[in-house]
Amino acid sequence: MGFILDGLESEAYDRTYSDVELLQRIMGYFRPHAPKMVLVAAVITLNAIAGAGGPILISRSLDIVAENPAMAIILLMTGAVLLLGSVAWGFNFVQQFFSARVVGDVVLKLREDVFSATIGHDLSFFDEYSSGRIVSRVTSDTQDFAEVVTLTTNLLSQITLVVFLAIWLFGINVWLTLLLIAFAPIAVTIALSFRRIARRVTLDARRVTATINSQIQESISGIVVAKSFRQEQTIYSTFRQNNRQGYRVGLRRGLTLNAIFPVLGASSGLGVAALIYAGGLAIRNQVVTTGEWYLFMQAVGFFWFPLISIASFWSQFQDGLSASERVFALVDAEPKVVQTGAEPVAQLEGGIEFRHVHFSYTDAEIVLPDFSLTIAPRETIALVGHTGAGKSSIIKLLTRFYEFQGGEILIDGRDIRSLDLAQYRQHIGLVSQTPFLFSSTVEENIRYSKPDATDDEVCQAAMSISNGDWLADLPNGLDTDVGERGASLSLGQRQLVALARVLLKNPAIFILDEATASVDPFTETQIQEGLDYVMRNRTTIVIAHRLSTVKHADRILVMDHGRIVEEGTHNSLLEQGGHYAELYNTYFRHQSLAYIESFGEGV
Fold first, then answer.
1. φ, ψ of residue 285 in degrees (nearest 5)
2. CB count, 10 Å around CB of 285?
3. 250 lies in which domain range?
4. CA neighbours within 13 Å on the CB side: how many for 362?
5. Is 33 helix (H, G, I), strand (E, B) or coil?
6. CATH of residue 110
């Protein structure tokens, strides 16, 4: 069994809900649709009456025709059966129509709630958990939630049908009916014994589906890298392995859920055998007539199927509950970034202060042990240091993407945790090393930072970078389609779009995770011109990889293992001959020479 479930561990944010808790949450989504549900219940009742009336009408028709086989009587009975069948079909149509509407509305609302909760999670949540697994919960599991509705409406129909049939059977013979009903607890007990394993196998099935979705998404996203290293077969082998695991888990789920019907069928066979024996004794003792016994056994056939469906409901219901459990776990995942208040942030001067900040991603990985830093409004600082020094962590804390464990971060003298987070982030402009563009035009990607911006404002933001010369290299200027994730543009062009997007936002605090690290010298010049414009009269923090950006900073902070080990201007730090001088001689200086050589070759 273990090899079937390898790699299907639950996520850290998963939790176990009781059936009562899940049912209460589920009912909350159905409560707004109570009128439709009442209508469905009424139609189910009428449909059940029509369904139960079918065998009763047929049995009575046979008795009437046997006494008077006239053609008119036969046609009348035939018409009555057809009419009853048509009425039952009409009731069933109304039931299915409104049930489908309720299911659609509930799934619509649930999916909106799940997606809203998902995008509201901290950035650390998406760093920790696979996006493919998250997508699976938002799409597949919310859709499977609909099974709860379908099974519930079917249950109501089956219960109503059983009640009417039981009343009819009591009218034929009380003692045989009581014997029949005595077998119902046995069927229910058998069905409930499948409940726990049904929940477990359905959860496993959903986890393996999430694993497959995650691997497919990752493979497609990284297909360029895979093809460049000729790893298509490796990707396929991984998919084949996951897919086969999905087959094994799915087979186990199918066998488990489907096994309940043969078991219940066997119990119903025992019940029928007991009824035959009891009926034979009743006939011999002249308690019932042969006709009554035959009619009773005919009715038993109609009675057992809905009874078995009712008994198996709770085990089948676990499929919908397991989907609900995964969905609600995603919604209820505890945030790590917690605001203590929601003070309005109308305007920012841009003063920043870190006071003895302690931060770690895990208990075993302390990134900032005791970090303090003061940045004056409209000051430009550059953070330099080797990989792992803590530069990016400072940015993540300032933008509130991650929560720090100790100390304070103040913005214009106010605790960052007390601010309205959405308003605060409106005053921050971030350009990362690998900018993300949405599948749209250049204009729409620039407008993304300020949806209500006019066309003139968008155009002005784009023209502010290198006087708009970069737009001439685009096939359709601002109307150029960037493709998926900006694939139609070069990395440098993507950086220029991202920079224009920040310019349009006009933030008080500008953060640059060196946008020129991976571009050619010509594009770097265009970007640098835009940077000079956007950094003017703004508090700016730069994670520096290029000397051109470092030299223009008011202060350069050299970091090592989460601490500031040197601080000063470019010239003063070179004169000290410390860490910065070492970085300059081993990295920045060679970079600068390469930069000159590149321009020399292009001249």
1. -90, 5
2. 8
3. 2-332
4. 4
5. helix
6. 1.20.1560.10
170 Cβ contact partners less than 8 Å away, ≥ 6 residues apart:
177
AA identity, residue 300 = V
Please give the full DSSP string across 137-165, using - where no structure is assigned. IIIIIHHHTHHHHHHHHHHHHHHHHHHHH
Contacts of 379 (CB under 8 A, 6+ apart): 539, 540, 554, 555
Residue 433 lies in a domain: no
The backbone torsions φ and ψ at residue 340, rounded to the nearest 5 degrees and listed phi first, read: -90, -10
Do the Cβ atoms of 489 and 498 come closer than 8 Å? Answer: no
Quick one: which of 264, 30, 319, 24 has its CA closest to 151?
319
Helix (H, G, I), strand (E, B) or coil at 367: strand
What confidence tier does 503 reach under pLDDT thresholds 50, 70, 90? Answer: confident
Q: Which DSSP state fits 68?
A: -
Ramachandran angles phi, psi of 83, nearest 5°: -65, -45
392 within domain boundaries: no
Bridge partners of 559?
A: 564
Q: Tell me which residue of 343, 375, 354 sits closest to 510, measured CA to CA.
A: 375
The amino acid occupying position 440 is S
Least confident of 40-49, 322-331, 475-484, 549-558: 40-49
One-letter-per-residue 3-state SS of 563-596: EEEEEECHHHHHHHCCHHHHHHHHHHHHHHHHHH
For the chain, give the longest Cα–Cα distance.
120
449: CB partners within 8 A, 6+ apart: 429, 501, 502, 504, 505
Q: What is the mean pLDDT of residues 153-172?
A: 72
Q: 481's torsion region: left (phi>0), alpha (psi -120 to 50) or beta?
A: beta
Among the ranges given (169-183, 184-198, 550-564), the one the predictor scored with the smallest mean pLDDT: 184-198
> Within 222-231, where are the H helices?
223-228
| CA angle centred on 431, ends 568 and 533, rounded to 5° | 70
Burial 165-193 (b: 16+ CB within 10 A, else e): bbebbeebbeebbebbbebbeebbebbee
Q: How confident is the model at residue 16 (pLDDT cuts 50, 70, 90)?
A: confident
What's the pLDDT score for residue 596? 46
Residue 59 in this model has a pLDDT that exceeds 80:
no
Query: What pLDDT is stored for residue 493 in this prediction?
Result: 84
Q: Report how many domains make up the chain.
A: 1
Contact 375, 353 (CB under 8 A): yes
Structure tokens belonging to residue 358: 């302690």
Do the bridges between strand 406-411 and strand 414-415 make them parallel or antiparallel, or are there none, so unpaired? Answer: antiparallel
Judge whether 538 and 510 are in contact, CB under 8 Å. yes
How far is 433 from 499, CA to CA, in rounded Å?
Answer: 11
| Separation of alpha carbons 448 and 442, rounded Å | 10
Main-chain phi, psi angles of 511, to 5 degrees: -120, 125
And the tokens for 495?
């950086």
Global confidence as pTM: 0.69
Let me know if residue 458 belongs to a domain: no
The reply to whether 451 falls in a domain is no
The Cα–Cα gap between 409 and 395 comes to: 12
Cα-Cα-Cα-Cα torsion 483, 489, 495, 500, nearest 10 degrees, comes to: -70
Contacts with 419 (C-beta within 8 Å, 6 or more apart), sequence order:
339, 341, 342, 343, 345, 411
Residue 302's CB is within 10 A of a number of other CB atoms, namely: 20
Burial of 564 (0-12, 13-18, 19+ CB in 10 A): middle
